[in-house]
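Proteins fold reproducibly. Look at a sample protein:
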Amino acid sequence: MSNVEKYLKGDKTIWFIALLLSIFSLLLVYSSTVALSSRAENAEPFDFFMEQLLFVAAGFALIYVTSRTPYTLFMSIAPIAYAVSLALMTLMLLIGSSHNQAVRTLLFFQPAELCKVALILYVARQVTLRQDRIKDFRKGFLPIMLMMLLMILPIFLTNFSTAAILALTCFVILFIGRARLLHLLATVAGLAVMLALALCLTMVVVEAVDVKKASKGKVTGMLAVSNKIINKTRLETIYRRLEAKHADSVDGSVSRASALVQSDYAHMAIASSGLIGKGPGNSDMRYYLPEAYSDFVFAIVVEEYGVVVTCLLILCYLILLFRVGAMVRKATHFFPAVLAIGIITQILVQALVHMSVATGIAPVTGQNLPLVSKGGSSMLCTFLLLGMLLSISRSQEKETLEQARSAAAAAQPTVGHGSEETAAAGEEALAVEAITSLNPRSTV
């Protein structure tokens, strides 16, 4: 056990949760990809299992390296990470491939996932460097906000929910970083008004185009230009989903098409679960949910494992929140504290949105369940974020050890040259005692 702890630096609870959720994801991916393999030629569930296993292995290699990297390096490379991520995101908009009516991938990689990491790092760095003027709108708040919007806008054009979650994470960092609440609320109100106006314009254009097509007329002029712009963004998708959600809540199934949609199958999976579920690999709705292994994996969790295991899964995310809270309370520097808050906010909000979609609280967004859903870019970037948390935790453990040694050295009486071994043993005993007094949970 001591040999394992020598390699696993940082908070052992975070390591354990990462391992537990990764093993759980392997079971779920193997189960939920049965239907996918039946629709694909020369594909077996074991193939998807092995693919997920490779991502998990790569993720743990990434988390290991990141956990041993000083967090001060993250602060130094934040501007470079920001620039590279923005360049990749722009390149994806130009030559990227599409999936589910959105351009999201660039050579099998999703730049938006890397943008999450880069922007959290960048905002945490800027908040730290501008602490003396963060309350000044022009000199402190506005420059950070403009750089945020520059990164979030291209993400919004391809994935609204990812952009919204990332924006919320950055606002939390700014709030914890002592930005004025008035500035934050004014910015949120301004962005909400702009989005509302854009959706109103989308509604007018979409309805006008539908009328033209119904009458077999030709879409020309400004209407054609506006329709082309809307088709290049996620505005029409957002409008259609909000319209469907509203129609469903007002008039139930009467106002919708007769065919069931993917969210309906997710609700059926959850409703048929029971306390202990149907058992691993016994899901029925996996054959009907097109994204059972990613966007709706939470529904498969509930259906196969029941309410009890689902509550334990949610508890894992809450334990992560608790461990980060303890980490922030122990922080002696500002940057690692706000970085840790940003990381846990991103992970938890994404998990909450995913669960809300599966349970019907929110419209379909396409968000993965962190560390559980099948995925490459998303899983690797989540491991990277956890590695940063472990790096911060490792630095805190190192600071605690140094404080303990200093306390032991100060308490050690002067000894003669003939008793060096006794003095060393006494210093070690005092160090252990000092570490225990500083942090009862620490292990030596």
About this structure: Residues 252-259, 415-420, 422-432, 434-444 have pLDDT under 50 and may be disordered. Residues 377-411 form the longest helix (35 residues). The beta strands are 97-99, 102-105.
